[in-house]
User: Fold this.
Amino acid sequence: MKLDKNSVIGFVLLAILFFGYFYYTRQGQIELEKKQKHLQDSIASMLPVKDTSVPVMLKPADSLKPIAQAGQLIQAGSAEEKLTVMENDLMKVTFTNKGAQPRYVILKKYLSNDSLPVQLAGQPTDRLSYLLNTGNNSTANTADLYFSNAEVVKGADGSQTLVYKLADSSGRSITHQFTLKKDDYMLDWTVNLNGADKLVSQNSLNMVWQTRAMQHENDIQSERRESQIGIVGKSGFDYFTIAKGVNKKWEEGIKWLGVKQKFFNTTLISDNGFSYADLTVDAGQDTSAVIATSTANLRASFPVAANAVIPFHLYYGPNDFKILKGYKMDMEDMVNLGQGFYAFVKYINRWIVMPVFNFFTKFVSSYGIVILLLTLFIRLLTSPLVYTSYLSGAKMKAMRPELDVLKAKFGDDQQAYSMEQMKLFRTAGVNPLGGCVPALLQIPIFFALYSFFNSNIALRGQHFLWSKDLSAYDSIISWKTSIPFIGNHISLFTILAVVTSLIISLYSMSMTPDQNNPMLKYMPYIFPVMLLGIFNGLPSSLTWYYTVSNVITLLLQFVIQNYIIDHDKILSEIEQNKKKPKSKSKWQEKLEQMQDAQKQMQQTQKKVQDMKDRTNKK
Assistant:
């Protein structure tokens, strides 16, 4: 493929933007840990054998102070903290009567980087509370109050309910009811205020939600990069990158607020919405296992009434698109299938990539093979563009002898050569960009797959060949000191992707006319080197896809060029096109006028310079 100077500059700038994005999103990685215990053994070690619905007694740190804070409210016994457990097949939720709230949550089907089940909302600083008027002109935070002991009540539908209560002698009471349904990651939470006009001010719960997200992936840099705050308000879904820190305030209502890590999220939902929200998020330090610490001040308003029922929901679970979409709250938007300037690719993922991927998983157990089949499908879908590209390359190769004649005629006069070259292409009916446009159209596909493989929790922990986790890079060699642009490891799938890319580039160059432009001559070597730095920290699922795609490209090039394209027929068509009358487009006329004007200017400058040189000699 022969390009003029302006085309070369354009493609170089496009390449810089394309690869610059990936370099920005990749900021170093840590060594992939190789140990991962069997899931069922880990769960068994975490879950007690006895009936966990029986409350567990804890020794109070200070029982006198909370009683004083409660004012006229009557607390449970001597203000002792007791833990109660509800669980289904998906998760185990441990509650505390101190504040009547979840203490921590264990996801049974997922392992953390320490080979133990993923635990959410289990840090000492995590709490969910609101202010109460406790009487005698005093207030207290529910997180500091001890509610009455509660027992788990099982429903006929398999659901479980837990009710905490705090009351005073006048009949005022606060009830927290939690319901966990069968096979569900959503926890229903209902606050019932009897005497709401006296318990809270201005018909609102002034809530504080504090949560600390901890590391769950081996590659903490990637986890931090993919972690975000997600919200849904009046204008729909919005997100904020945690790595940059967040300090936002909303004066209008929002439906829900979620702290999303790479593959898990904790989300607080209000059926009536929050009328006000003030959020502060601090990213964790590089030396710690903390992803982010967030504090949200929220206001949940309700109609004026003596009694109020305020429904909330708490989601503790995976960033699984199908699961989140099932709640019909736009929570599936937290799964990054395309955001920012390439947000349009999420439709490629939702309508094409994801349905095809899920279809193959119904019949194939190995996710590596599923990715191979997905690659074949995508290449089949784009095959018409690929054929057009190869056909254009074959035409360019057929014109190589005539282009060699032009080179010999014009020598170092690149401008004159380019003008004659374009005339030759036009008369022969050859589009020099015919092979480039299909390649450019495949860039959105790559962006879509980059997002899909980075966010697909189904790939997490899946083994394939030497890769221990298709959602992370496959490290075959690692070292302690991080090398700029490479990191502290080498990925074997990345090496395969680089080598196959190099072979494709060299083969493509052999099919095109000789290049005088040094940039085009060295591009086959520069591009794979750039891939080495960009791909080395990407998920092995993506580099495996790219490797398979490159192998398919090599096979297609060989078969199409040698067995499908009729080179004699192409030469005959070129000769026939030369005999046909050609009409110039307005764009071609303007381009030729500009080139002629530039050539005349150069000739004039040369004449002036020659005159100056002769004058100086005299």
Notes: The mean pLDDT is 78. The CA atoms of residues 44 and 108 lie 10 Å apart.
